[in-house]
Amino acid sequence: MSCRMKLATKWTLLATAMASTMPAQKVATIENPARLPTPPMGFNNWSRLMCDLNETLFVKTADAMASNGLLEAGYNRINLDDCWMNDQRTENGSLAWNTTKFPHGLPWLGQYVKSKGFNFGIYEDAGNLTCGGYPGSLGHEEIDAQTFASWGIDYLKLDGCHVDPRHGRTLQEEYKYLYGHWHDVLGKMERPLIFSESAPAYFSTTSNFTDWYTVMDWVPQYGELARHSVDILVYMGAGSAWDSIMTNYRFNTLVARYQRPGYYNDPDFLIPDHPGLTLDERRSHFALWASFSAPLLISAYIPDLPSEDVAYLTNEALIAVNQDSLAEQATLASRDSKVDILTRSLADGSRLVTVLNHGNETSEINIPLDVLGLSSHCTYQARDLWDGSEQTIKRRITVKLNTHATAVYKLSVSRECAAVIPTGIIFNTASGNCLTGNTSTVSFEPCQGGRSQIWQVDSSGVIGPLSERSQCLTTNGESVSLQACTGSHVQKWSYAISGNLRNLGADKCLTERETGGIGVCGFEANHQVFGLPGGVQLAVLNKY
Ligand code: GLA
To answer: Secretion signal: which residues (predicted)?
Structure first.
């Protein structure tokens, strides 16, 4: 037991700085998680076919998914994206489908997919127009919700193109107003639709993330999932599909603190038939999204999807991880220029380890057990979730990975070794820099994967690096440093939905800057928002 952990056992747990030593139990949720207890799985046409959608496509896709094993594996949603509607609303103000594209009509299509065992989803936009230029829902929210319900729709992706601030509101406030209004409208329905919110995506591309964080703070209160960042590369798009996957993957690592059962961060579609991807890259895409408990929405031409792609997309063990009832998002235990190591707990008490080689060469990776929050003195049984093979792990896991490949292991833990200490990098989610503790100094540096950048957060909010087992992150109110662990308030930190790490003694926040590292807590200030290892319970859920 480390010095830090000995101290922790003596202290009364602070309700405001709780970190679990057991697999994380999620904090009570704001909305009823039963509306969507696990992330959605299914099909959406957008990335693959964009506006080239019609009835035949959805019928053939549903038929293919019902026969090739995807439906049975859990992909039970057929979702339409943009361009399904007429250019104009009808005389009574309701939306109408394009009768050339959908000759039998959307109610008929809904019944068809439902008869096969799918749910049926649709796309609209919160503003004046959809991104494709079709009628938006602004001012028509009630009638559109009723229309969708009457067509048998049970899932709404609400995009955010063509939203302009009104009535003196800022743009961020206007989005909050519109998505909040939709939330109220949906909440009054007999059977509320699943609500996928695209609002954060419209704030993710500026260098100042304050508005983006602010939008992320409210989306979990209004809907079941949110598209937080840029679009994944469409089939005909210019550029590297792998780079696009990595961009969205990295965005997802910035927002782990928001996810809980009933609300999921959405890094956008799986694109398994994109011609620019190798098999290792396609498998990585799926394995990473599964490890995140992210929505698994496939955008591909499924009737022609090769069996090698269907095979990994239906990997039962990885789907079980994705659908795990804790819905914990895997977080970064370690990150360097070539390899990311992610970890999370699962409802059965086991620990997941996901290793991504994002470098350009084959790599052999050694992962000491303490990096995963586990005990170096225990033995664990590890199952490789790709092939089901088992191995016994003592002290470290070693894995050799092709470029852009991902390994996923499930480590079962015996009762006496069940304790998990939240462990991993602490990084500024705007700059990407890692909190680094060297001897007594603390700084923010590019993430290099060393033990001075891997931190344990114990159950009393005490934080220290793996490189210095008896040293703790400490502030004197003016600066932060590593000092011998004493358990005093100046060594205890709370973590909130805002991403702030607030020192209980000084009542100030960890701050990335050249000197000092502590400052008066601001509001979603770029230099004060951090990603922490999973399992650290949020002190204040739903602060805003
Ligand atoms: C935006 C969304 C995409 C898709 C298109 C449709 O770009 O982010 O996912 O819905 O609009 O026009």
So the answer is: 1-19
Beta strand pairing status for 264-266 and 434-438?
unpaired
* CB-based burial label for 340 (10 Å; 0-12, 13-18, 19+): buried
Dihedral, CA atoms, 330, 240, 277, 327, nearest 10 degrees?
Answer: 20
This model's pTM is above 0.85: yes
Give the pLDDT confidence score for residue 17 in this predicted structure.
Answer: 33
Catalytic residues: 159, 217
Q: From 158, 198, 227, 244, give the residue whose CB has the most ligand 1 atoms within 8 Å, as the site to mutate.
A: 198
Query: Helices 106-116 and 55-68, interaxial angle, to 10°?
Result: 0
126 Cβ below 6 A of ligand 1: no
Q: How far is the CA of 201 from the centre of ligand 1 (A)?
A: 10
Sign of CA dihedral 277, 278, 284, 287: positive
Three-class SS state of 541: coil
* Ligand 1 pocket residue status of 233, Cβ below 6 Å: no
Among 269, 265, 266, 227, CA closest to 245 = 269
Which atom of ligand 1 is nearest the CA belonging to 198? Answer: 8
Count of other CB atoms within 10 angstroms of residue 458? 26
- Quote the longest CA-to-CA distance of the chain: 74
Residue 401 structure tokens: 């990975």
Say yes or no to pLDDT of 1 above 50.
no
Give dist(CA 541, CA 544) in Å, integer.
9
pLDDT digits (tens, 9 = 90+) for 28-46: 344 556 799 999 999 999 9
CA angle 419, 494, 258 (to 5 degrees): 80
Instruction: Express each pLDDT in 112-162 by its tens digit.
Output: 999 999 999 999 999 999 999 999 999 999 999 999 999 999 999 999 999
| pLDDT score at 5 | 52
| Strand 155-159 versus strand 119-125 pairing type | parallel
Average pLDDT over every residue of 214-230:
98
Residue 538's pLDDT band, with cuts at 50, 70 and 90, is low
Q: Which domains does the chain have, with CATH numbers?
A: 4-234+259-275 (3.20.20.70), 331-417 (2.60.40.1180), 423-543 (2.80.10.50)
DSSP 402: -
Note whether 456 and 464 are within 8 A (CB).
Answer: yes
Contact 252, 228 (CB under 8 A): yes
CB of 266 shorter than 6 A to ligand 1: no
Nearest residue to 456 via CA among 483, 427, 425, 432:
425
96, 106, 82, 94: which is closest to 144 by C-alpha?
Answer: 94
Minimal-distance CA residue to ligand 1 atom 3: 231
Residue 544: is its pLDDT beyond 70? no
